[in-house]
Fold these 4 entries.
Entry 1:
Amino acid sequence: MPLDAALPAPRALLANLPPAWRAPLAALAGAALILLPAFAEDWADMAGQWWNSSTYNHIVLVPPILGWLVWQRRADLARLVPTPWWPGLVLFAGAVFLWVLGTFAGFDLARQTACVAMLGALVLALLGPRIGWALAFPLGYMAFLVPFGDELIAPLQTITAQLTIALVHLSGIPAAIDGVFIDTPAGLFEVAEACSGIKFLIAMVALGVLVCHLCFASPWRRAGFMVLAVVVPVLANGVRAWGTIQAAQTMGLAWAGGFDHIVYGWIFFAVVIAAVLAASWRFFDRPADAMLVDVAAIEASPLLARLAALQVRRLVLLAALAFLVLGGQAWSAAADRLEAPLPARIALPQVPGWHRVDYAPQLWWEPRASGASHRLLGRYADGQGRTVDVFFALWSGQSEGREAGGFGQGALVPESGWDWRASGPALPDGKADRLLGKGAIPRLAQTHYRTGDLLTGSNARLKLANIADRLALRAAPTMLLILSTDASPESAQPAALEAFRRSAGPLDAWMDRIARAR
């Protein structure tokens, strides 16, 4: 059979489109083809995470799912008439502004969320509210294109460790827990980031939302299924970690590690999904032939009729969309060029009662501060033999690739031999973390950020301050100070850092003195 006989020609496909849809779809396709290259860097970063990170591999299925969801609605959509809608332009402007804020803060999640939101707003602007209502679920499901969830890793590590130690004790294995480390007769186990269960959880949430839409009509049953989709992966991950420890007691660490990788990666996840679906099957209450779009209700809705009346000429709308994109990117580029004046050299100052000694940690520890103009790392000691390590970094500005609070920056450098253990004692103006080097060397690290008059340990507060500066196109330096110690005994570490802080005086003034900012 000739190929042109087997597949409909493009002209035939266009001919089958209702006349009212041809110009709007052409405008939508053209705008999308311009929008995607305009933000190509962000889309490429997202695609790289989908393909290269096992946490987000499930997202490669989301685009075809979205296409299928729209295809299901094609007959109903053909009965509606698209209209250019100026409030969609307001939504698009909000998405562009979110992207600008994301670039100002060096916050990839905000930038990527904005890029996905722009596509959704584009649909609303060019096709109108009635089409938007008909496509409400696919437009909302686009949120799963964004690779989110890294913020949950640390709490999930802690939850998994607590569940695991409880199951280990119930099974009669003598064990002790210290943060995310579990010490057993077979060896020391760490609930690492890869073992937090985040990949299982976010994939299950994406599946759960889709199942709720397709298989349930009752909002209560949908809510119940989503509770299962969240709780079961967390509990199952604790069981998996316990099973690994249990296997190690009899078969050895190496065998248990390989078993955990194969079973959890290829079997365990599928078994848990099948079990959740099987347990929920009898509660599915949405008929297979239920309508996805109630066209009559959409056409009869007074609210949608009033909203649809807010029209604008399509060419004016497209011109405004282009202006917003160009304006947002120009604003971001101007902020990227901001550079605060910095001294040519900086040095760690004298601290009363303390003196500088050679930096000789038990295990090399050097925080990361990518893009910083100046970095200092040194060790102080006092007359009582206490030692404190000081790391200081100074940036002339914050932009992509040089964020003080970016991923992998600060006290815990990935794949450096140091692992996060637990949060340290609370600080009013900083953040404390307990680290463990090579499974044996404890270290307490206290992180402080400084910009303008702000002194904080909160990465979120730092980013908000950086955003405010860049919105106003105001150049301001950013500083990072980490006070740390690996002294023994571990119980004396908080007191050593507190003694150093008292001797140094107010940390905000101390940091300003190092940076010569006041």
Note: The longest strand covers residues 441-451.
Entry 2:
Amino acid sequence: MLLQLSIQNFAIIDELRVDFQQGLNIITGETGAGKSILLGALGLVLGNRADSSVLRLPDKKCVVEAIFGSSKKQLQQWLTQNDIDADEELILRREIAATGKSRAFINDTPVTIAQLKELTSALVDLHQQFDTLELGEEDFQREVLDALAGCTEAVELYRSQYLGFARLQKELEQLKQQQLQQQKEQDYKQFLLDELEQASFKPNELEEAEQELKLLNNAESIAAVLTDSVAFLKEGDTPVVQQLKIILQRLQQYKDVHADISNISERLLSAQIELSDIASELDHLQNNISIDEARMQQLNERMEIGYKLQKKHGLHATNELLALQQQLEKELQAVAEADNNIAAKEKEAEQLKLQLEKEAKNIHQLRSKQTEPFVKQVNALLARVGMPNAQLKVELTTGMLHAYGIDKINFLFDANKSNRFEPISKVASGGELSRLMLCIKSLVAERISLSTMLFDEIDTGISGEAAKQVGVLLKELANRQQVITITHLPQIAAKAEAHYFVYKQDEKSVIKTKIRRLTKDEQIEAVAKMLSGERPTDSSLVTAREMVTG
């Protein structure tokens, strides 16, 4: 419930604070004193839009603070989920700077306006004069019927499943679009893959072929060099190896005579052996060098195929071509598997749709069962509040699956028993809409579990017995939850458990709006003034006392 409302520098209000009570809180006062402005200020902390035009003094910021009891488990969970301290009291604050910039706080933690609205939607239902457009909205009508039918949780569960179904449908559509695009590209990709598979390259094949081809192209020159080298080392008139052998033989004659000759002889022997080995290897290489024209042609053909494919795909190595081949294989495999994926998801979607249809039919039955009792209750209440000829009718039709079932709900209204029912927004006046909304909210208030309900001039266009019945209805509503109502009618004001009077006061030539809670005697006097004018008569005082205490 709303415990306290503090306002600074808002519209005609300089500064005030009011402590509200459980039950029925009534606000009265002179026209223009600022009664509705109180609810306008409260609307700020509920997330309503505001700018610098609401500032009483343009160089000073506006601050509105509301304190609520926060014992509800769902509120505590919401605070925890949003990293906001959860205390016994819930403090909402809205600040409007002179520049028009707005800031919002929950328990002194800065929050967005969206967060503020999300939280307060579970705290307060604010019904302002003629603000009854939601009565004609299907969402509101559905929520009313669901609350009375006791299927709100079932609808929420269904809705979460439907959203999953919608996501699955979207995924299916995307898969089909992808498949369509892939099928368009499939033939070309298959052609590219066939080219690569036909080429059948091995890792590094083109690089190795290029190296081998260089060798074959230079085979004749290399063979000539090798032949000359072997001849120089081992053959001819004066082969190097033979010369070294002769030198070594001559030096060995004197190795016992000169100490250093022995060491040099050993080195010459090693050089002779090494050169002899080199000559043998060169001879082996020379014998294995051949000019293979067929091999050269084969290598040239492979390289031509490879270079064309590299150029075609903008690649530079054999292994890059092989990587492309693997990629194409995967993509074509994905196309082949797409049918299976789509078929599996279609089966899943169909099963989920059948489940949703079953649940939607159950919800429809619950709504259908509640329609007639709801209409009877509302029409009975309409008669109580001075609209005996008015009738509400609920049109419930079924159609395709949607986020809330298969039902299309439409509240129709006939104000004069003409038997011509039309959508509420088209045929009901402002006063009729206000009383109709009160009747409906009185039925669903306990089910939707709002902490506080606020009504701004719910009494518009009524008097006498109808006004009395509106008061009774508000009193009954307040037995279940806190109700705050602005009124001009004594029949309603007399039902107050807490009566607040808004007035203007001259302080040093400055007119300021004030509010105070009336005592029981002051309430009786206020009701008497509402009955007979500023100077109540004895009879009006007696009547007022009976109304307040009766």
Note: The chain has 17 helices and 15 strands.
Entry 3:
Amino acid sequence: MKNKIKYFVLSAVAGLLLASCHDIDVPITTQMTPDVFPQNEEQYAQTAGAVYSAFRGEYAHSFFFLSTISTDEGILPARGGNWYDNQGYMKMHYHNWDKDHGATNYLWYITEKAIGVNNQAYYILNNVMPEGANKNRTLAELRTMRAISYFIMMDFYGNVPLDTVYGDFEPRTNTPRAQVFEFIESELKKAIPNLSEETGDATYGRPTKWTAQALLAKMYLNAEYYTGTARWNDCIAAADAVINSGKFAIEPRSSYLQMFYPDNGPQMKEFIFAVPFDPSAAAYPGTNGQMYRARYDVPRSLQAKFELPFRPSAPMSTLPEFYAIFSDPGDIRNDQWLTGPQYMNDGVTPIMVTTTKKGYDQFYTGADGGEPYTYHVTLSPDITLRQNPDLFDCGNDEIAWNMGYRNIKFYPDASSTNRNQNNDVPYLRYSDVILMKAEAILRGGTPTLGHTALSLVNMVRENRSTSPAWTTVTLEDLYSERGRELVYECWRRNDMIRFGKFEDSWGFKTNNETYRRILPIPTDAMKLNSLLVQNPGYN
């Protein structure tokens, strides 16, 4: 059993914290008041725990899908009507979402809820905890978690309301994105002096000084896009704070894949901040709260290969354009993909499926369509909308279900009986910090610590590939390297926007509208708060 922070299983306390920072018409009344609860160290931890539970709520669900399916990393087409889901995934791929789009609405809802829960917990703990280092650290951690939530809102929605006062139900209009950026930066800098420098078991699942510095590096890397002013040297300085801490290291080639296994956790040397998942943890009220990658990524014919106690659905795959960057035969990151003919784990026994000729190919026209047909499961790279392009549908036969290469970075968890996996999901990793510093230097920042962009990229690559070190590196090279290193870790959209590629064409998507870099404010949010101003392009 992993030694992970227990904040995430405190569903009873989470149920008391139902604040939402912009649901201005709904007063909040709970029994969580200083004279009733919390009154001791265990209860203080439980109160803070609701913040982490709320943040985890849609992290591996709506946040993942919007970060991934809106890019060339992933596509989730319908297969015989399955997973059509009212055009939800189709709209993400085509970039034609609107202000009533499900995932777009839900990410806003759960992120503002996480902020509201944080405001309430911060207010209560600030009033009841005894003065001292523990109080200062707890409040700094909550401040950092709120900054992370606001970073996500700023990144996805641009101009968003700022609200940090619990119990204040006055409506607020959108704050300009540059000012939201300044607020997040200020909050992180205020938190840093009181955040822990410890890593490992003691702080796993909670933000440390290095979490705040890594997030600052991420903000500064994107500052030109967010604010109009480039801050490459600030990115380098924040990255150097993490590097100079000596707390982290790039996982060697031999353990890269294990970073994402069901038994990952505080022992992973690259994890700066990770979101713990545990099938026994109840979801925060009103959220999904689960991490079930195997359900989406493993072809149903491979259930026995991975010894899964449930039949996976396997609707999600990647696109040939993205998979093409995995072209180095010596790269361990190739092993996170399922491609071509499939075999059992011995690498020898072919995985065979018996169906009918028509079950294999629904368009088979022979008179013997009902005859048995056995085939060797083979995943094909291309996605073809054979059944109905208008419904984003590949078909409901074996050919359709085997379309697309699948990513199993978050390795299937055979121990979970309810599809919810034990794999913790990193939000900030050390290799990302190294690549961010390399990019900042390539874009004009001043090199430090004897590093060059090339030496930094090779620092990552020497732990990933047996191929010779690179002798040159360009921004395009770095963009591809980030794709290989951080696939399915929710940074592809952020990278594509920064590199000016979010408007490119891939798969079936041709929409090049630049306003799609920012999502619409949901209709329900606009109804609750009449002062909100809709983002351009969505009126």
Note: Strands lie at 271-275, 337-338, 340-341, 352-356, 372-376, 378-379, 406-407, 425-429.
Entry 4:
Amino acid sequence: MPTAYQTTSPLRQRFRPLWWLAISYVLIGALTRIVLLFMAGSGVPHNPLYWAYAFGVGLSYDLITFVFLGWLLLLYLWLVPKRLYVSRAGQWALYVGGAVTLFGLLFIAASELVFWGEFGTRFNFIAVDYLVYTTEVIGNIRESYPLGTWISLLAIATLVVVWLSRGGLQARDGGTTFLQRSKVVLVWLLVTVVLAVGIKGTLKDRTDNAYVNELSGNGVFEFFAAFRSSHLDYSRFYRTLPDDVAFKRVRELVKTPEATYVSDDPHDLTREIRHAGPEKHLNVVLISVESLSADFLSEFSNNKRGNITPNLDALTNQSMFFDNLYANGTRTVRGLEALSLSVPPTPGDSIVKAHNNENLFSAANVFNDRGYQSDFVYGGYGYFDNMNYFFAHNGYRAVDRNDIGKGETIHHENVWGVADEDLYTLALKQMDEAHAQGKPFFLHIMTTSNHRPFTVPANRVPQKNGTREAAVAYTDWSIADFIKRAKDKPYFDDTVFVITADHCASSAGRSSVPINRYHIPLWIYSPKHIPPQRVSRQMAQVDIIPTVMGLLNFSYRSRFFGADIFQLEPGRERAFPATYEKLGYLHSDVLTVLEPQRKLEQVKPNFDNGDAVPNTPVEQGQVDDATAYYQVAANLFKHGQLVKRPDDSKPVQPAPEPAPVAAPAAQ
């Protein structure tokens, strides 16, 4: 009596392991999606339609991804001759290959869970970006998670599944020819090409809930889609205006009362910023704190996390404190870009990591023209994210972990760098040296302690080491300790401390650009020069440096896109919250989001929870403003027009002092 294998066509026998792989991959995808759904929690409403969409569309993307992932096994099934294929060695090759493949797929699924826990999304451009820096990323994983235990459990699960499903990996061939197998491969190739050309990761984004859209995708597919879009040309992928119209609009948008254009060239944004009276050449210490979300502060969190920032909370009443500030992005490089160049984010790669990013018009240029020593000080190794190269080629002296001597005390370090207190010790060293040389200094300090694995020096904070709460509490302690140590320095009274965040601790939300995930604090602290006050006007991260320069009464040439918030007329405030491909423009209570394929979304965001509802009718003026800002910024960088020019260093005459008001005549 013929067996089931004998009644199956030879081609089906030969390619049966592909069915095993497909079923395994679909089941892994479904289980991953279930776990991610639970991890999303209240982010996904209890609506069966959302669930059906996530799992139905998700299944489609899993099958599409399988077509690409199946190629290695397909090539083996196609090319190996029958005699070798059905031999004992061929059978073991299938078992071992199947086990290795299954382990890899399970490892990717586990990695997705970790990535979702950190960023609230499937793999995206951040995952692509991190792949370049394997030392830091692998070190971060090893320090944050029990990697050995996880790998052991995944290996055991792999062996169990392969053993139980070994029938699907049986090497059978009832007599196929190479030509017959080639026809299968040809069809597979045609399907692969059609899917590669016709299916985009954005096709799934059809609901009003960002978590559901993410659940509907496939991590591997999203990873490669992000890889392909890492260099997005604005004019090719986004909504545009005629160049002359866009530049004219931006010239109007960046013009402020104290600024005068130096030429009538419609494509030139160079302005002379003129203030009355002498400049104040005070020292400036800019601290961009890793992941310091506004809601870590007691007044924004209502103490839900406990009182983990007592020193920063106290500093709020001693500083000029800005409580309505929004970051440019969700990555450190976006914060560095905003704080050094004062430009809206470019789609895809940050300018910090882009090619041809040298000699740009930067904050350091303005300070250097006044005799300052400008340093970028980082506690890790600044090759990460191209930081050292970028800053060293744009007016700064790059100082990093390599500049800490072997004999100097290091209280703690992890894969990202030394503890914040040791970073501040390094910064104080640079400040002392500049002061000894009779130079004012501008320091941009970038911290690392508030980053997973969240390990901090012992006996500094009561929170459990390795937790976010401990890292935030230590961030708070180390800033207070830094200011305390700086108070003993002869230059303290003439130093302005500017403390803000590079971005928030989380970027996940139910809307495409959850505005609450961009809310960051800003303190400007200088007891002898800047009286405490609360500033609640909406403000962009790109406005920080122009505002500081305004407080110093600088008169200078500028091509910054940001504005001195105290010169910007009320009602003109805006911010640029963005992801690597979704470009946001926040004006008042309306958020416009520009997306690839020239898509557009305009919503009214909820500033407390990040939700959003469509803004109807669409305010076309804001759409055009958003388009103009991003189009012009991308255009200027692409064509090398953001560079520092020789005329930028020429002194700008201060504005005339206002005429005294005559006393009224005596009656």
Note: The first helix runs from residue 4 to 7.
